[in-house]
Structure formats: C-alpha cells, structure tokens
Amino acid sequence: MKLHVFATTMLSLLLLACAQGPRPQAQAGPDAYAALQTTSIINTDGYQLSPGDELSINVYYEPEMSFERIVVDSGGKIPFPYLGYVTAEGKTAEGLADTIRTGLSGRYVVNPQVAISVLQAASQKLVVEGEVQKPGSFPLKGRSTLLEALALAGGPQRTARLNEVIVFRHRPDGNYAARFDVARIRAGVDPDPVLEGGDTVVVGINQASRLYRDFLQVAPLLTLVFLRL
Predict the structure, then answer these.
(1) Judging by DSSP bridges, how do beta strands 136-140 and 77-80 pair with one another?
(2) Measured between alpha carbons, how far is 1 from 69 in angstroms, rounded to an integer?
(3) What is the pLDDT of residues 49-104, one digit of tens each?
C-alpha cells in the first residue's frame, strides 16, 4: 500500500512539473545582443517576394548583371539585363534565381551561377505577446527595434516587469532567446536591439514560459542558447 501511495505521489509531482514547464532562460546583457546579432541578409527561408523587397543579385563573373541593391517594383517585377522585366512577386529568392538562371543560360551566359539575397523584406511580420496593451502580429517595415515593436503593441501594461522582455528567434541552427531590460533601453543605458522578421517579443515571464514550452514541444532537439535569469 505504501509503495502504491509513493508511486501515486511521484506521478503527481511529475505531472505538475510537466504542466508548469521550465522557467524561460535566455541570454542577458551583452550575450543577449550577440545572440540576436543581425547581418545584412535576413532570415527568409521560404519567404515569398513581394513589391518593395530589396534584393542583392550576384551573377558570378558577370558584374554588369549583378546588383548590390535592387527593389521589386509595385508590379512585382525587377528589371534585368537581356531579360527585360522579370516577375519576382510570389517567388522565393531561390525561385527567382532559377528564373534568371534559365533565362540567361546558353543564349547569354554559359552555365550562369546566380545567387540572390533578401536585404530587406517589405512584408515580414513580428509578433508581440504578453503584458502589452494590444498583443498581435505586426508588419515589419524597414529597420525596426524592440522599443518600436512595443510601441506597435500600444506599449507595456502598467504592471509589466520591464526587465523581463524576451525576444525569441528561430534560426536554422536552433531557437534563440534573449532577455532585455526595457527600462535601461529607454534610459539610454543599453542599446535598442534590432529585430528581424519572424521574431516574437514576449513581455512577462508567465507568457514566456508558455512559449518556451512550445519551442521544446515543436522542436525538442533544437538547442536554446540560454543563461540563468
């Protein structure tokens, strides 16, 4: 009987621990900025191009066909040497590269090698959740920072703990979480971190805990870079 009671108690404790989930852990201080360090090329896996997107196009060994910066026009096209206006809207960067590669192949360039990167996506979104006035999904237009993202959501609630604002970011090598102190950022003590399309900003540990558990459930083998809060 005692063994049965012990087993039942242990099972209850395990279920409770699973229900609560792990306390969210994230890089803090300088490590937080390093974890979210951006490059000129944003994370656009599977992203479909749209008007206003800024691209770089490199046709190897063909400088007259390469562009450090070119913008998809309002009709969803880009002008390209020999090919005229090429439709970019609705294609991925790789799909557009394939179109250009096919158009150039044989007639204009022998075995063309084309690489396209998205420098700025006009229609990417970011999510702001937790203790904010208007949580939701917002379009990311141009260079956006954490304070600007919070402003889009109406700002933190009056009772929000401003030192517990966490940015979650998915990358091909894993999921990353970085904690920031908004009060220090507002005071100019810490820099305002730059966000990327696809980022999720969570204000408050309770909401972050749930998202942290979701990360583990969706991708249990991916590693979260973390530091104790």
Answers:
(1) unpaired
(2) 74
(3) 888 889 999 999 999 999 999 999 999 999 999 999 999 999 999 999 999 999 99
Identity at 19, one-letter amino acid code: A
What tens digit of pLDDT does each residue of 157-204 get?
998 888 889 888 876 667 778 889 999 999 999 999 988 878 889 998
SS3 call for 33: helix
Half-sphere exposure of 197 (CA within 13 A, CB side): 22
Cα separations in angstroms, 171 against 35, 40, 61, 163: 11, 15, 31, 24
CB-side exposure of 148: number of CA atoms within 13 Å? 15
Task: Please provide the DSSP assignment of 167-197 as one string.
Answer: EEEEETTEEEEEEE-HHHHHTTSS--PBP-T
Strand order of the sheet with strand 67-71? Answer: 67-71, 54-59, 114-120
Contact 149, 86 (CB under 8 A): no
